[in-house]
């Protein structure tokens, strides 16, 4: 049997029950510790993949600049060393899971953030579907969910740092997207804005070359996963990160820790682009910034669980 910081792991069934008032939440691991599953009293588990420590080049390199117009906030490219393993959610946080925390949350309230031309689209009700990503959540609401889940499960749950997000998204790649540089492959991996959606939104820079069949958000895992087994790292919803936005990487931490100072402390980083984004804004290195109070139909989040300090084998 293995003991893990107040949690017991039974190797046969790999069932964990936290001891600090969270018996109602079941946590399971696979036998090699690579996958964590939080049941959340739901038939659809919240799964997380373990990301191993490593070094990668964060931001856009001069070589990337030869293929894309690279904004200043992706420069300079720099080496980041992630020293500790961490778990990151396989899916973006869904409506079903968020409503375990806030039963009254209604993602369709975020429709008010969309142009009127989108209102006639079929499928608007999908914004509230159980297994679609939650939207209409501010940074504070996303952080409150993480705090609640930490207390429920006896683990440290938080938003990813910007570096953790990009490291997990790349999955060992140094290309524009997790799948490579081929734009035509986007419909296999990402829910992005194609020409029709771009027109209804009043124009989107560099729309996707093919229609992916989704008007707004898509059910999580509707597209292929990246090399780390993570879904929707490009598109679907843009994802809140811990970091305060900075205009460049001149003072970026080499260990990938979150930036807490920036040109405007009211702006926070979001990553990955959304169903309303074109190809450029969905690149692995692409950065966007939003006021922390933003509650729109394009922004959600996924969680990180920190690796416990001690793991004992028996």
Q: What is the number of helices?
A: 6
Number of beta strands? 15
The rounded distance between the terminal residues' Cα atoms is: 5 Å
Number of domains: 1
Briefly, what CATH class?
A: Alpha Beta
Mean pLDDT across the residues is 86
Strand order of the largest sheet: 1-2-3-4-5-6-9-15-10
Structural class: alpha+beta
Outline the structure in words.
It is a single chain. With 314 residues, the protein is an alpha+beta fold. It has a single domain, classed as paralog of FGE (formylglycine-generating enzyme) (Alpha-Beta Complex), CATH 3.90.1580.10. It is 14% helix and 20% strand. The strands form three sheets. It has a nine-stranded antiparallel beta sheet. Strand 5 (35-38) and strand 6 form a beta hairpin.
Question: How would you briefly describe this protein structure?
Answer:
With 314 residues, this protein is α+β, with helices and mostly antiparallel strands. The protein has helices spanning 62-65, 95-101, 139-153, 162-170, 186-189, 195-200; strands at residues 2-4, 7-9, 15-18, 26-29, 35-38, 46-51, 54-58, 78-82, 86-89, 157-158, 238-244, 267-271, 287-291, 299-300, 304-306.
């Amino acid at each position: 049997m293995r003991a893990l910081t107040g949690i017991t792991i039974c190797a046969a069934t790999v069932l964990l029950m936290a001891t600090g008032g969270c018996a109602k939440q079941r946590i399971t691991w696979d036998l090699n510790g690579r996958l964590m599953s939080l049941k959340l009293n739901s038939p659809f588990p919240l799964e997380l993949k373990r990301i191993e420590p490593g070094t990668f080049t964060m931001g856009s390199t001069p070589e990337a600049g030869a293929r894309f117009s690279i904004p200043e906030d992706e420069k300079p490219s720099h080496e980041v060393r992630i020293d500790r393993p961490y778990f990151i959610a396989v899916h973006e946080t869904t409506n079903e899971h968020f409503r375990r925390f806030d039963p009254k949350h209604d993602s369709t309230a975020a429709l008010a953030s969309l142009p009127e031309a989108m209102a006639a689209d079929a499928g608007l009700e999908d914004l509230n579907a159980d297994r679609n990503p939650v939207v209409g959540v501010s940074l504070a609401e996303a952080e409150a969910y993480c705090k609640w889940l930490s207390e429920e499960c006896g683990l440290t749950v938080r938003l990813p740092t910007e570096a953790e997000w990009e490291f997990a998204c790349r999955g060992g790649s140094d290309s524009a997207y997790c799948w490579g540089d081929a734009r035509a492959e986007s419909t296999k991996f990402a829910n992005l804005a194609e020409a029709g959606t771009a027109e209804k939104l009043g124009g989107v820079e560099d729309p996707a070359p093919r229609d992916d069949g989704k008007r707004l958000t898509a059910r999580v895992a509707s597209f292929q996963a990246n090399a780390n087994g993570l879904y929707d790292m490009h598109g679907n919803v843009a994802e809140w990160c811990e970091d305060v936005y900075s205009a460049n990487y001149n003072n970026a931490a080499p260990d990938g820790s979150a930036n807490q100072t920036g040109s405007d402390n009211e702006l926070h980083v979001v990553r990955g682009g959304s169903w309303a984004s074109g190809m450029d804004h969905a690149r692995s290195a692409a950065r966007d910034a939003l006021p922390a109070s933003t509650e729109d139909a394009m922004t959600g989040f996924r969680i990180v669980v920190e690796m416990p300090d001690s793991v004992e084998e028996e």
